[in-house]
Amino acid sequence: MPMIKLIDYGTPDAASDMTVTLTIDGREISVAAGTSIMRAAALAGTEIPKLCATDSLEAFGSCRLCLVEIDGRAGTPASCTTPAAEGMVVRTQTETLKRLRNGVMELYISDHPLDCLTCAANGDCELQDMAGAVGLREVRYGYDGENHLAEAKDESNPYFTFDPAKCIVCSRCVRACDEVQGTFALTIAGRGFGSKVSPGQGQPFMDSDCVSCGACVQACPTATLIEKSLIEIGQPERSVVTTCAYCGVGCTFEAQMRGEQVVRMIPYKDGKANQGHSCVKGRFAWGYATHRERILNPMIRDTITDPWREVAWNEAIAHTTQAFKRIQERHGRLAVGAITSSRCTNEETFLVQKLVRAGYGNNNVDTCARVCHSPTGYGLRTTYGTSAGTQDFISVDQADVIVIIGANPTDGHPVFASRMKQRLRAGAHLIVIDPRRIDLVRTPHVEADFHLPLRPGTNVAVLTAMAHVIVTEDLANEDFIRDRCDADEFHDWAAFVARPEHSPEAIEATCGVPAGDLRAAGRLYATGGNGAIYYGLGVTEHSQGTTAVMAIANLAMVTGNIGREGVGVNPLRGQNNVQGACDMGSFPHELSGYRHISDEATRSMFEADWGVALDDEPGLRIPNMLDAAVDGVFKALYIQGEDILQSDPNTHHVSAGLAAMECVVVQDLFLNETANYAHVFLPGSTFLEKDGTFTNAERRIQRVRKVMTPKNGYGDWEITQLLANAMGLGWAYDHPSQIMDEIARLTPTFAGVSFARLDELGSIQWPCNDAAPQGTPVMHIGGFARGKGKFVVTEYVPTDEKIGPRFPLLLTTGRILSQYNVGAQTRRTANVVWHDQDVLEIHPTDAEDRGVREGDLVRLNSRAGEVALHARITDRVAPGVVYTTFHHPDTQANVITTDYSDWATNCPEYKVTAVQVSLANGPTGWQRRSGELSHQSRRIMREPAE
Amino acid sequence: MSASDEDHIATTSDERLVVMANQIARFFASQPGDAAAGVAKHIAAYWDPRMRAHIRAHAAAGGAGLDPIASDGVAALTR
Amino acid sequence: MPFAHWNADRAAAIVAAQANREGALLPVLHALDHAFGHVPDAAVPIIAQALNLSRAEVHGVISFYHDFKTTPPPPHVLKLCRAEACQARGGEAMAARTLARLADRADIAIEAVYCLGLCASGPAAMFDGRLAARLDDDRLTAIVEAAG
Amino acid sequence: MVARVYVPGDAAAVAVGADEVAAALAAVAARLSTPIEIIRNGSRGMFWLETLVEVETPQGRIGYGPIEAPEVPDLVAAGLFDGAPHAKRVGRPDEIPFLARQTRLTFARCGVIDPGSLDDYRGHGGLKGLERARDLGMIGILDEVTASGLRGRGGAGFPTGIKWRTVAEAVADRKFVVCNADEGDSGTFADRMIMEGDPFVLIEGMIIAGLAVEASYGYVYIRSEYPHAIAALERAIVTAREAGLLGAAFDLEVRAGAGAYVCGEETALLDSLEGKRGVVRVKPPLPAHKGLFGKPTVVNNVLSLAAIPFILAEGAAAYRTFGMGRSRGTMPIQLAGNIRRGGLYETAFGVTLGELVEDIGGGTWSGRPVRAVQVGGPLGAYFPPSLFDTPFDYEAFAARDGLIGHGGVVVFDDSVDMARQARFAMQFCAVESCGKCTPCRLGAVRGTEVIDKIITGQDVAANLSLVEDLCHTMKLGSLCALGGFTPYPVMSAITHFPEDFGARRTMAAE
């Protein structure tokens, strides 16, 4: 596997249907109108020298290396900024140009260190390449003139260095930060010869607004901004394209390797989800894969108070299998189950549910999507017929009004947020519906038209009020409704939303949002052109999560904002493979492709393929498993790649459930919090160590490619296969591609998917079958998957979790950019420098009432439990609302959350908990005990070496 | 695991099932058509047999706490 | 004109008064400079917040323009025109002598300016905002001395 | 009868004591209980006569100059208020040959009227152009301006009519008219004079431009080194708004620069107006298509816009009668530097450089021989007297590796060291470079260093050749005129004055 080499065309693709034909160095080429001469030349195979141009950024025209001569035109225009024109005759190599380019390079090198041989970028430096390309042989200015060689390095960022002595002031970093990432953390300060790249106000990177997305490093043509890992390890020798294992955006990366060592992860320009962009997690936070705390050997223990004992794989597998068999013999077939992972591949997930259904003989399988997007599946399936978002990410480029509800894209889905910001800067309108003032409400060059800071738990009321405005002000898209939706259901719904009690004026008191804003937001969404709704867990993680999803679906239908580019209903998935885990039949009631287990035809197809009879009854969902465990009837659980103790609500209840089981098997990279209650620990593999596929939030199936040997010995799919075969299932998968073939065979929406096809197309958005051989970027074009779109009446039913004298504040939770989920991975990287603890955001008024000052340790308690954490006083949250993240096990926000859940799916109500805040003098009893338990559970007895 | 110094929720599984059934009932109550049938269909599709057995048993024992529509829905369960 | 001491609240009010203009940054910076005689680093976050710009952008702009200083100016500022028309009338020699003569005057900042538009009446200068042309050493000294 | 006395409020007059003169006049008149009205007019542009005091008499306005405040009591005693004879009496200003020989179209009112009085402006033919423009309508205006042959007076000489038509044809929700009043070239002051002496002509020109392209708003970007001009124009805008000339349909505001020569480049100016670093943009897109805030924008120099009212009032034909070749109309030329009669000289294109310097300007102020003349500001070439036959015309100057730029003519006597001037050109470029493009950002500093080596006699031949290569790189490679034209003064100095570049030293060494 050599290094992948992508052509840099110098300027972005010009989107035009018209073509022009020009001649470059005697060769004729036809290109889209608006294409730069530089890009046209690159398309024709001629590389014009360049330094400030790169095809991820708009042409800038500053380096002056790419000048060309054009017949009939005076001077030497820059090829990057001059569009190709019909009949143009361009020369890229003439004596004048050679002299000119030589002159420019001579100037560059007169202010550049002459340390190529010891420079980390040696061999991968565009300045070096260009000096060669123009044939520079001598710098006649000498090296004693004014220069920048004594400028100090900035090593403040943990992942990259900034060495201004090597800077050629091409502004690529600044432009990348502005155009691609949209943070505007960098500038050129000063002017003329004194111009220099400056983070923030001339500060170190870490003191600036930099979010460490890596776009500047990616854009830098020299060693000025360069990964510390590259400096340490040296230039890579091979590279492999793979998919990030963090969030639901699904960025494609080129893993650049030196031997078995990752040198760096480079965002892949041809990646459809990220288009060459990245965030601090995917780009830099992969060091957990080799973290010293990673567990590489299987371990078992008899009780959870024992230390762990390292064992061989065969012993661990046999031990587990015996325990499960014993438990099923003693407590019945239904006493065991499994949890699939939204972080593992589709193939791995598919195998776990297959193990449960075919091996354990029940349907007790669930996935962590239960606790995040299960309402999305239910709600969108009910209304539209498909349990998935309707658009691809790039669709946002066509959106005119963007509505964000209960999502914080700049933290949760940063790479997509950057794309969204590009569109917002280009003029799209923005409505943010969120209790907290997320960054997108107002961030440089982006400002929401409306921020509706609703009281947590009132999404449905707000969405219905917006629908009321649309229906009562005659803003409904009648043509769309007539052609595409069920008329009776529409009329029932329209009559429902039109009732006076759903008017913004009536709802105002409930949701706390001024009626005028509700009306204006409803009008804007209905009349502002293409309206696209993006939502996250702030919609789903409520007792009315499913109702809210359906309310969103209603809004999109009533305005006709569905079935084309630029519109749609877009769930932003939390983890890398939430969509995939759901698709793969991880839910206890359905097989892959969202087909109910009771459906005879589907079941029999699986039975025939697998050669076993399947239970036709739905199995247990995660909370039900825990309830059943507490009841003493559910005894063994195989958990692949999840940390339910930390991630699931009402930690006390989770721990009680786990503690009640006889055999808890945790398969993970690290001894996580759930493993404190485990009897078997199976070391898992990272995404770098296995083949497979992830499916991102836009239904895009992408390849995960093995770049190194699994340090634990097996990919996760192999471990599941070992367990299955110990159960006597006789599986014989040699490669995950065979698993995908099986999925395709058994799942109509995946019928056209195979590894070969993925390699060929790069990625595929399901459905992919004979009807859509290239996949389906945008769904419901021309008609809904279910036929007619279904309007659903969305009565607002307030949660039973209510504030009162004891718990007068509402806690809502979220995530932060640098950390991921329970932090298992990110906490084991340098990302902790950005967020080393979870803090409680509290409004100044509420803080003052309680005598809380910035940074104080406070006690946060609810009916469910209490934790202590530090306070941050901010008006990002409204009075009466507090907010925290759940990335750190020592603060365990989920000790606080309750076991209230969505009516339809049991998705927990993480986002609304009545709490009280008071000053604390130390950690709570629970925090102390769980800390002790974790400590105890990290004891490992190693076999003496033979 | 003891948590005696903390006042956290301690509901039994049956209590939870009643809460869940009532939540489902409150949704279907607002829908056009037969609410009880909707409840029954939903529970049949998503609850495992043991949970269904428990709620039926609870209903049979007087159905303490069950909303009328939830009760009707449970009664309409065929399995 | 004496400048006010830096005051964040007053600065915020000055910024707010200009913030709704299109492309407000230069007017904002001029207004701050007018009030405080300089635009300190502490002003940057205030401006950035009000105009919805990043701190880096504001810093980049301040550092680009010669007019904006980040530290308080001395009581007097003498801007000597150093451009060609004044050079042609002995401006450079006069500037050199002036710089030498006033070298120990900490209360006067002497800056180069490139053209004050008085090119037929050089050498020219601006002292504390007032123009002077047809200068020679005596006239320049008189102007500076008059200010104390 | 109240005596009307004119004391210029123009910055160049104020800089030589006009305020003090006005105050002294008021004080003396008060002491004598003579009722006078002092009008702070603009300057006539005869700066050697400033402060030029004029008194209205039955014989017309009689001038006295140059006057300093201490002379005032004497002058008054001698009968200044009646236009009585005095050693400083210069007679009717418009009969002074310097003024009498001019063709003042744009500057017709400058120095004559009260720049603060719209009535005075109207009384001297102001607003006739606007009236006719309103009658002609958009297409008519465009045709008229195109037919006049007016070319941009900022330096590039682009036909104004074509630029306007491009903006007029662009489709957008908003369009702008931007006046480039960032007059940074040393040796130029015409923009400043108009803004201080006849601001309404600029306002009228901008309103007409707005009509022609359907723009709703205009900005005048004035360099901060021109506080008087900023104040004068701001006052005039308020007056025009009160009179209903400006308002809902088209309004104007002044924006001050902040010390950046490069903002005189139109795209850098637009970025500066947008509140950004004044960095040069690439073209395309042209400002006419995508200018201020991304909208189609007319960017014109003060003199171009100030020429418009005449063209509209008197017709294109009246304007294009003047001039030569493709350079039509008049050019307000500014005579500056070491010159006896420095000032504003508006004349038809075609006058030769020699006529301007020797005849009109009267040779050097120092009385020494003229050695070099820099035409067109810091980016213009240095011409030796041997090229004094060059006619003032865009093409004629270009043919001799020069440019007329904004019409500034800076005269140097024989004490000038042309190597120092070449070095200054590079240094100025280094000081004022925006820093975007490499040839300018790095080249200007290296150029200064290399010329320093030449001045100190190091490897003169090799370094001269390096300067020549560098100038090639800067000229062809720079993004804008700052870096691109800096080679003009440098190479013209080397070409025309080789003896100042170590040639003597080299010969002495031989």
Structure characterization notes:
- The complex is a heterotetramer of chains A (946), B (79), C (148) and D (510).
- Chain A contains 29 helices and 37 strands.
- Chain A is an alpha/beta fold.
- In chain A, α13 packs parallel to α19.
- The longest helix of chain A is centred in the middle third of the chain and has 19 residues.
- Chain C is α+β, with helices and mostly antiparallel strands.
- Chain C is 45% helix and 12% strand.
- Chain C contains seven helices and four strands; from the N terminus they run ααααβααβββα.
- Chain C is elongated and about 50 Å long.
- The relative contact order of chain C is 0.12.
- By secondary structure, chain D is an alpha/beta fold.
- Chain D folds into four domains: 98 residues, Glutaredoxin (3-Layer(aba) Sandwich); 203 residues, NADH-ubiquinone oxidoreductase 51kDa subunit (Rossmann fold, 3-Layer(aba) Sandwich); 91 residues, Ubiquitin-like (UB roll); 92 residues, Up-down Bundle (de novo design (two linked rop proteins)).
- Chain D contains 21 helices and 16 strands.
- Chain D has a five-stranded mixed β-sheet with strand order 2-1-3-4-5, with helices on one face. Chain D has a five-stranded mixed β-sheet with strand order 13-12-16-14-15. A four-stranded parallel β-sheet of chain D has the order 8-7-6-9, sandwiched between helices.
- Chain D is globular and about 75 Å long.
- The C terminus of chain D is likely disordered.
- Chains in contact: A-B, A-C, A-D, C-D.
- Chains C and D meet through α2, α4 and α5 of C and α1, α10, β12, β16 and α16 of D.
Question: Could you name the key traits of this structure?
Answer:
heterotetramer, A: alpha/beta, Ubiquitin-like (UB roll), Rossmann fold, Dimethylsulfoxide Reductase, domain 2, eight-stranded mixed sheet, six-stranded mixed β-barrel, 29 helices, globular, C: 148 residues, alpha+beta, elongated
Q: What is the gist of this entry?
A:
Chain A is an alpha/beta fold and 946 residues long.
Kindly report how far apart the N and C termini of chain C lie. 14 Å
Give the biggest sheet of chain B.
none
Q: What is the radius of gyration of chain C computed over CA atoms, rounded to a whole number of angstroms? A: 18 Å
List how many beta strands of chain B DSSP finds: 0
Q: State the CATH superfamily name of the largest domain in chain C.
A: Glutaredoxin
Structural class of chain C: alpha+beta
List the uncertain runs of chain B: 1-10
Question: Strand fraction band of chain B?
Answer: under 5%
Q: What is the CATH architecture assignment of the largest domain in chain C?
A: 3-Layer(aba) Sandwich
Low-confidence spans of chain C: pLDDT under 50, at least 5 residues? none
Biggest β-sheet description of chain C: 4 strands, mixed
Strand order of the largest sheet of chain C: 2-1-3-4
Order of helices and strands of chain C: HHHHEHHEEEH
Coarse morphology of chain B: globular
Q: How many domain modules of chain C? A: 2
Strand content of chain C: 5-15%
